[in-house]
User: What shape does this take?
Amino acid sequence: MRERFFTKLIRGTLPLLVWAAHFAGSYVLVAGQCSPAGFAPGSPHRLPLALMTIVALAICAALAWRGRRTLGGGDEGTALLDWAAALTALLAFAGIAWTSVPLWFVDSCS
Assistant: This one.
């Protein structure tokens, strides 16, 4: 049986990549809306930000749900990768929720 390094690497870090994509995407979207030549001048619209946040939270929740046996007290055969995948999903969920808080208070582009 051949181990696939990049498959395991992605499995352990996918929630953190989702968090990073959400963080970058949120600020790019707000910057695009607030620039003078932006695609939606005026104050930033919250609906795209809310949809992006909901999708990112759903992905992290699904990844945490996938690792629920590990978080519930895995047995001796539980590998470090299983723990890393489950705990990074919870960390990324909390991170996405925390970094989306300022987006709800954006009133204007100043």
